[in-house]
Amino acid sequence: RGFYNNPEYAWAADMAGVSCEQKTLSVKLTHEGLRNYDLVGQLCWMGEPQGKTLQVLVSGAGYGAVYWDFPYRPDTYSYARAALRAGDATFNFDRLGMGLSDHPFGVLLDVDTQPYVLHPTLAALNAEHEFNATVMLGHSFGSTVALAHALTYPEQSDGIVLTGFIHNVNPEFGPSMGKSISFAPFSGPLAGELLDPTYTISKANSRGDAFYTRNNTDEGVIATDNDTRETTAAGELISLARYFADQSKELTVPVMTLVGENDFVVCGGELDCTDHDAVIAHETTYYPASICPEIYVLDDTNHNANLHLNAPQSFVMLQDWINRRVGSAGAPPTETCDNGSS
Question: I want to staple 263 with a disulfide (CB 3.0 to 4.6 A). Which of 157, 158, 244, 267 is the partner?
Fold first, then answer.
């Protein structure tokens, strides 16, 4: 995509002292799959990668690797930079169906095929660099991918962070989303390049009110979001709500949830997220007490928590949890779950 080569944008790979390798990994969608697809991402670190905690950054629907390594005012909005400064390694990638990665037939991509793709991907990265621990951070649809992966392959995860996700859906979001998307082959930045009609993309300038609290957002962020918007596969749209049930009660690894009180996607209906205590009480019931789930609600923040003015404070909260519950910069976790889970 052209914006990756835009000289006006700055990426984590541009940081002094950071080393990055672009990884192209050949993966299948299912165990029985006959075709291989290329998954493309960047593995970055400072110093040496061996022995570090690997943070795997999973973007949401319509967002590629840009979400976690935002190129506009990156010292404020790039979580990848914050993680690298903290001494961890990052793997920030375009999920299959977006960005630099291959685009399989859109109905084949869903919330279960994406975790299957991550299984050999993480195995290959860990075999090469022998990371000390692995934590997966998801945003929105990427949070359901992180959750599904931890449930299916718990041996690969030392903890997960879920952002833009709680076990609730705003009844107003579906109709609003239907009005704000179009078919990617016919409109938007990929018109004429992507031929598969089972891919959608946000209409121009449709994300500002849906995903941001305006009085807590730099308008330059919204403009950059519009310029870098990515595709969503039909299979992802169909399967979006699959992990909003109670499968999370079977989770065996530590979990942190971070959600904005104005999140238009998951707040609404019977759950008013401006009542932070109600959100915490609601969400805690979806996880076993043995993993000591931690739920945080952000003031004046909508769906894209990484991209609000309070992003630096949010990043501190995320890294603090990783330090305590997973371990960071090669060090073990500093806190043990009160219920006996480490």
Answer: 267
